[in-house]
Design a protein that fits this description.
There is one protein chain. By secondary structure, the protein is an alpha+beta fold. 23% of the residues lie in helices and 27% in strands. It has a 4-stranded antiparallel beta sheet. The radius of gyration is 21 Å and the shape is globular. The termini are far apart.
Length: 216
């Protein structure tokens, strides 16, 4: 699926189109802009957008408006905290993103030795509009497998299937990242619940250089 997400004022907050990202000054050089693999029913999209997809065919173009209760929820005052500047290793600056106790927030203000941090999801409380196009609908087991592995791990990931078992050779840059612990559970759930495999095995190969780097 290709899509572009907009706010009420027309500003684009996300897109799969590189040209649209550049035009709206949100282009990220580290990101690959291409249609995304969507497993309908997996709850990986905002509710309002996912509810609009079932039954749609290849080539379908749609527009859906998503209210906060079916998007990123409403803003909560409980997620806005004020802490001492002494908790920061570097000088805190308004607008900067920080991570604390597994949460990501943005600094709203700095005053009198106190820092106000907002841990709300940036799109909380916003009404969103998505313009999307379904580029393809995958029905074949092999096509689904390939799309999930290459879409959620990467085009360089290799795998083998034997009956109802799939073994995935995970690229080093993935399994050495902290996010992989969560990512591999999600991918395994997709492959078992939505494709039909009973067993998912990951191969993670370490060499001496990897272990040396970690021990230094």
């Amino acid at each position: 699926m290709s899509f572009t997400g907009k706010l009420d004022n027309g500003s684009v907050f996300d897109t799969t189109d590189a040209d649209v990202a550049k035009q709206n000054e949100i282009y990220d050089e580290k990101r690959t802009y291409e249609p995304m693999t969507v497993v309908v029913g997996s709850n990986t999209l905002v509710q309002g957008l996912e509810e609009d997809l079932p039954g749609k065919k290849k080539g379908h173009k749609g527009t859906v408006t998503v209210p906060p209760e079916k998007g990123y929820g409403f803003r909560s005052l409980e997620l806005i905290e004020t802490v001492s500047t002494k908790k920061f290793d570097k000088k805190p600056e308004p607008g900067a993103w920080i991570e604390s106790d597994g949460r990501v927030g943005v600094i709203e203000s700095v005053s009198g030795g106190r820092v106000r941090v907002d841990y709300n999801e940036p799109l909380a409380g916003k009404t969103l509009t998505f313009d999307y196009r379904i580029e393809d609908v995958l029905e074949d087991k092999g096509e689904k497998t390939d799309a999930i592995i290459h879409g959620y791990i990467g085009p360089e990931a290799k795998y083998e299937t034997v009956g109802d078992t799939i073994t995935i050779d995970v690229p080093k840059e993935y399994y050495l990242s902290e996010e992989w612990a969560i990512g591999k559970v999600l991918i395994a759930r997709f492959l078992t619940s939505f494709v039909g495999y009973r067993h998912v095995t990951y191969k993670e190969t370490f060499d001496e250089s990897d272990l040396a780097e970690k021990s230094e």
